[in-house]
Automatic annotation (TrEMBL):
<comment type="similarity">
    <text>Belongs to the peptidase T1A family.</text>
</comment>
<dbReference type="InterPro" id="IPR050115">
    <property type="entry name" value="Proteasome_alpha"/>
</dbReference>
<dbReference type="InterPro" id="IPR023332">
    <property type="entry name" value="Proteasome_alpha-type"/>
</dbReference>
<comment type="function">
    <text>The proteasome is a multicatalytic proteinase complex which is characterized by its ability to cleave peptides with Arg, Phe, Tyr, Leu, and Glu adjacent to the leaving group at neutral or slightly basic pH. The proteasome has an ATP-dependent proteolytic activity.</text>
</comment>
<dbReference type="GO" id="GO:0005737">
    <property type="term" value="C:cytoplasm"/>
</dbReference>
<dbReference type="Pfam" id="PF10584">
    <property type="entry name" value="Proteasome_A_N"/>
</dbReference>
<keyword id="KW-0378">Hydrolase</keyword>
<dbReference type="InterPro" id="IPR001353">
    <property type="entry name" value="Proteasome_sua/b"/>
</dbReference>
<dbReference type="GO" id="GO:0016787">
    <property type="term" value="F:hydrolase activity"/>
</dbReference>
<keyword id="KW-0647">Proteasome</keyword>
<protein>
    <recommendedName>
        <fullName>Proteasome subunit alpha type</fullName>
    </recommendedName>
</protein>
<keyword id="KW-0539">Nucleus</keyword>
<dbReference type="InterPro" id="IPR029055">
    <property type="entry name" value="Ntn_hydrolases_N"/>
</dbReference>
<dbReference type="GO" id="GO:0019773">
    <property type="term" value="C:proteasome core complex, alpha-subunit complex"/>
</dbReference>
<feature type="region of interest" description="Disordered">
    <location>
        <begin position="238"/>
        <end position="257"/>
    </location>
</feature>
<feature type="domain" description="Proteasome alpha-type subunits">
    <location>
        <begin position="8"/>
        <end position="30"/>
    </location>
</feature>
<comment type="subunit">
    <text>The 26S proteasome consists of a 20S proteasome core and two 19S regulatory subunits.</text>
</comment>
Length: 257
C-alpha cells in the first residue's frame, strides 16, 4: 500500500494523499481473514450459509453462532469479528423494535439496511472510534418478496441476488454466478449453498469448521430460522458428495498428466 508508515493510518478520520482511509481497509482485511459467508436470493426465499471456523476441538458444538435473528423476518450472517457482529445485531434489533413501535408494522428490508449502513458508516468518521471489522449479510421477506443486502465495513450497502464475504469470497462468487437463481427453489438453494461452502473451504489451513444454514421463505412462513435438521443433513450429504467427486476428477487429471 502507498502511504503506509507516514501516519495516515493512525486515525479513521484522516485521508491519505491518494484519497484512501486505511483504517477502513484494515477492517476489510479482518473480514477477508474470516470464514466465508454467502447469501442466495431465489424465487421463493433467501438462504444464508456460513463457514464457521473452529479454532479448537474443545469448543461446544453449535455455540458462538454466526447466523443470528435480528427480527422475526430478519436474518443476519457475518464474516469478520464476532464481537462486532453481536453489537450490530443488537443495533438491528433495536431499530426493528423502534420501527414496529412507531408504525405497528415490521421494518422493510431497504429501511433496516439503510439504517444499519448509516450506523456503520458513522464509525468511519470520528477519530475516537474504529470501523466495524465485519461484513453482514441481511436477509428478509417483505410481503412475500425476498430481499438480500450486504453491509460493508465502510457503511456501503447494496441489494444482491447472491453475495459472499470472507476468505473464500472470490471462489464463492464464481460458483454463485453459475447458478440460475431466478428458477432455483429455496430447498435447492440450501443444497447449493452448502456445496459452495464446502467447495471454498481450505482444509489445509482450517481443518475444523461448522456449517450454518438458515432461511427466510414462504415455507418458513416468512420467519427467519435455521433450516430443518433433515434438510440440513441432506444438504451436507449433497455437498460432501459433490466435493468428493471434484477431488476424484482432479486426481484423474493428475494421473493423465
Amino acid at each position: 500500500m502507498t502511504s503506509i508508515g507516514t501516519g495516515y493510518d493512525l486515525s479513521v478520520s484522516t485521508y491519505s494523499p491518494d484519497g484512501r482511509v486505511f483504517q477502513v481497509e484494515y477492517a476489510q482485511k479482518a473480514v477477508d481473514n474470516s470464514g466465508t459467508a454467502i447469501g442466495l436470493r431465489v424465487k421463493d426465499g433467501v438462504v444464508l450459509a456460513v463457514e464457521k471456523i473452529k479454532h479448537s476441538r474443545l469448543l461446544v458444538p453449535n455455540s458462538n453462532k454466526r447466523i443470528m435473528t435480528a427480527g422475526k423476518h430478519i436474518g443476519f450472517a457475518s464474516a469478520g469479528w464476532m464481537s462486532d457482529t453481536r453489537h450490530l445485531v443488537k443495533r438491528a434489533r433495536d431499530e426493528a423494535r423502534h420501527y414496529y413501535g412507531t408504525y405497528k408494522t415490521e421494518i422493510p428490508a431497504k429501511i433496516i439496511a439503510e439504517r444499519m449502513g448509516m450506523y456503520v458508516q458513522a464509525y468511519t468518521l470520528y477519530s475516537a472510534v474504529r470501523p466495524f471489522g465485519v461484513s453482514t449479510l441481511l436477509a428478509t421477506m417483505d410481503n412475500n418478496d425476498p430481499q438480500l443486502y450486504m453491509i460493508e465495513p465502510s457503511g456501503q450497502y447494496m441489494g444482491y441476488r447472491g453475495c459472499a464475504a470472507g476468505k473464500g469470497k472470490q471462489a464463492a462468487k464464481t460458483e454463485i454466478e453459475k447458478l440460475d437463481l431466478d428458477s432455483l427453489s429455496v430447498r435447492d438453494a440450501v443444497k447449493e449453498a452448502a456445496r459452495i461452502i464446502y467447495s471454498v473451504h481450505d482444509s489445509t489451513k482450517d481443518k475444523l469448521f461448522e456449517l450454518e444454514l438458515s432461511w427466510v421463505c414462504a415455507e418458513s412462513n416468512g420467519v427467519h430460522t435455521h433450516v430443518p435438521q433433515d434438510l440440513f443433513d441432506e444438504a451436507v450429504e449433497y455437498a460432501e458428495n459433490a466435493d468428493n467427486s471434484d477431488d476424484e476428477g482432479d486426481e484423474e487429471m493428475e494421473d493423465d498428466e
